[in-house]
Recover the amino acids of this structure.
């Protein structure tokens, strides 16, 4: 840097004498060496001496990004503004300005910056396509996080109309339509036909959309290949490592999750982590979620032997950490959900990878060896729908026996529920609601006139949309009542106001079902074929009320009407739940943990004896092609035999033209 005489201090690079190309190269070398502060100083020098350089805007842009790297967002914003003033039609600074404001918590200002670039780029040519779609995508993402679903959907639609080759944008657009109950969820967008939209659907959205485990397996495989992809470095080849060389002691189990906090997964796992037998296991928790510290996360930290925040580590660094910890079995508690670190598992930092609890379905990956389920969720005849080897607990879902319930018990008036009415409820997220399920609910309300339906509130627009749907079905809109979101202890406390929980299809209640039954509210469910559609049947069985499993959609409607018309029957179910709570399998977390540890020991024996399962991924790209052509919503009411014949015929048609490798699952 210049000293107080205006010359360059001894030993420091005279940055102002560099060409722009050399400046950028030197700055990148400093950044790579962890010296971003020196890179910022280099840019500051160069800009001070080259104010008339024709490419000043490029240096100002890089300077702004570098200031952000060293924790000076305000300086970064000023540098990006300088870049824009120097060249107003240079669009990257607009994108990054929005990013700076978003990280400061100023989402409205971030959206305004991105709106500025979309307004400047009305035409579609060259770089304008890239920057306009990028800005619209950022707008949609931030507005979605702010629960401004309608505007977010509109921004993503505009982006897709410009460039329909954005699979990730299609995925967000579909998820937004599901959350808003905009039916049909799958629709053409611009030049993109329905088949193209279906092909882009994410695994989690597909679980909400269709009861189709064949497509879910093929879709998970496709998502893994295209959206997760191959890691930058080669995975560890455990076949070359002698298992006998492992660190001595109990099995070292690593749990990876972005949800070790106040989240359904965090609530459910807290008890599990603390109950592990330390003579059999040593427990590591790897957190990859948002920056937060709450009471649930503190409980989890106390319950584990080792806590490691990998949220700021890249995959290579996180993999090295897990490898240095000598983890034997690594548990994926995210699957294909928000903030997952799937590519970390691709690096194979542990010999055994397990898919459990965080994602209701198969991963379709080459590196997840096992999935933990139970006999109800994955009967043996369904194992062909999973790429992983299926291992089973008595009841697959963990539960926290020490969950906090607010001491104050609310009255119905507190939740705008009418006294004396029969209260059907469904406190699942709106993304799980489908037209077929809603139609059945309307039949039930019609046949039980002195009843209301209590739903978890969405946005005002979505709530109104459902009220209008109810009115079109002949149901007074005011019979739909919306529960505002509350902190979990208060949310649990208000369950006692409900009489009967009505489950969704095809993605049913999971942790919400356990919450309801913990609070004494029975739940009526109709299982399907897919993982997500069968969890609730597992839970009511484990709670000791298997009679709440319905055989068909018609049976579901009939049973709900019968229960809604006979409060004494519901009271008996509530009595059974209360009586069973202390002893039933659903809430016997100590037994679940003992059985889980036995599964881990089985997995480890498989590994050391050379029997580690290899996922079967044959022909899944062809199944993906076949599924896109089918009527997905119709799968729900289709008999199993007819359902499988659809795929058999679809595969035969393809094989007649393009021969398909033999596949042990469905078609030979």
């Amino acid at each position: 840097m210049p000293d107080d005489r205006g010359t360059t201090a001894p030993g420091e690079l005279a940055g102002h004498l560099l060409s722009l190309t050399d400046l950028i190269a030197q700055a990148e070398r400093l950044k790579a060496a962890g010296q971003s502060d020196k890179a910022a100083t280099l840019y500051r020098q160069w800009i001070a001496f080259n104010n008339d350089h024709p490419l000043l805007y490029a240096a100002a842009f890089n300077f702004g990004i570098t200031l952000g790297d060293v924790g000076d967002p305000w300086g970064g914003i000023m540098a990006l503004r300088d870049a824009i003033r120097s060249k107003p039609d240079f669009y990257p600074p607009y994108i990054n300005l929005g990013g700076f404001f978003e990280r400061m918590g100023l989402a409205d200002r971030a959206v305004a910056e991105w709106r500025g670039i979309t307004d400047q780029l009305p035409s579609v040519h060259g770089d304008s396509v890239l920057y306009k779609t990028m800005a619209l995508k950022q707008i949609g993402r931030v507005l979605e996080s702010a629960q401004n679903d309608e505007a977010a959907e509109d921004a993503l639609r505009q982006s897709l109309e410009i460039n329909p080759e954005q699979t990730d944008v299609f995925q967000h657009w579909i998820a937004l339509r599901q959350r808003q109950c905009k039916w049909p969820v799958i629709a053409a967008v611009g030049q993109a036909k329905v088949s193209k939209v279906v092909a882009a659907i994410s695994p989690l959205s597909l679980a909400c959309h269709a009861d189709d485990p064949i497509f879910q397996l093929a879709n998970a495989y496709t998502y893994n290949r295209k959206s997760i992809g191959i890691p930058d470095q080669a995975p560890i080849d455990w076949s070359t490592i002698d298992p006998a060389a492992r660190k001595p002691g109990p099995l070292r189990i690593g749990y990876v999750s972005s949800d070790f906090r106040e989240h359904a997964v965090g609530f459910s796992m807290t008890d599990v982590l603390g109950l592990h037998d330390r003579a059999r296991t040593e427990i590591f928790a790897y957190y990859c979620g948002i920056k937060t510290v709450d009471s649930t996360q503190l409980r989890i930290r106390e319950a584990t032997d080792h806590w490691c925040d990998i949220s700021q580590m890249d995959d290579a660094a996180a993999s090295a950490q897990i490898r240095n910890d000598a983890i034997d079995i690594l548990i994926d508690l995210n699957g294909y959900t928000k903030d997952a670190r799937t590519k970390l598992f691709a690096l194979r930092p542990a010999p055994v990878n397990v898919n459990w609890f965080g994602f209701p379905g198969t991963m379709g990956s080459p590196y997840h060896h096992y999935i933990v389920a139970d006999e109800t969720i994955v009967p043996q005849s369904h194992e062909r729908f999973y790429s992983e080897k299926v291992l089973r607990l008595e009841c697959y879902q963990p539960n926290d026996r020490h969950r906090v319930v607010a001491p104050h018990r609310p009255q119905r008036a507190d939740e705008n529920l009418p006294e004396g009415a029969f209260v059907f409820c469904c406190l699942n997220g709106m993304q799980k609601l489908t037209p077929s399920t809603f139609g059945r609910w309307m039949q039930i309300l019609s046949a039980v006139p002195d009843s209301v339906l209590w739903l978890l509130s969405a946005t005002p627009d979505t709530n109104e949309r459902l009220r209008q749907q109810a009115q079109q079905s002949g149901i007074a809109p005011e019979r739909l009542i919306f529960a505002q979101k509350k902190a979990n202890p208060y949310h649990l406390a208000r369950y006692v106001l409900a009489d009967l929980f009505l489950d969704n299809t095809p993605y049913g209640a999971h942790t919400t079902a356990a919450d309801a039954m913990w609070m004494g509210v029975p739940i009526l469910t109709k299982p399907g074929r897919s993982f997500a559609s069968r969890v609730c049947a597992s839970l009511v069985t484990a709670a000791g009320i298997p009679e709440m499993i319905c055989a068909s959609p018609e049976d579901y409607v009939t049973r709900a009407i019968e229960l809604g018309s006979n409060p004494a029957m519901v009271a008996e179910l509530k009595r059974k739940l209360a009586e069973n709570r202390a002893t039933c399998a659903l809430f016997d977390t100590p037994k679940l943990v003992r059985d889980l540890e036995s599964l881990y020991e089985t997995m480890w024996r498989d590994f050391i004896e050379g029997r580690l399962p290899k996922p079967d991924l044959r022909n899944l790209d062809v199944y993906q092609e076949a599924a896109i052509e089918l009527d997905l919503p119709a799968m729900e009411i289709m008999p199993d035999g007819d359902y499988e014949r659809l795929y058999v015929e679809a595969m035969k048609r393809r094989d007649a033209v393009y021969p398909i490798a033999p596949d042990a699952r469905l078609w030979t």
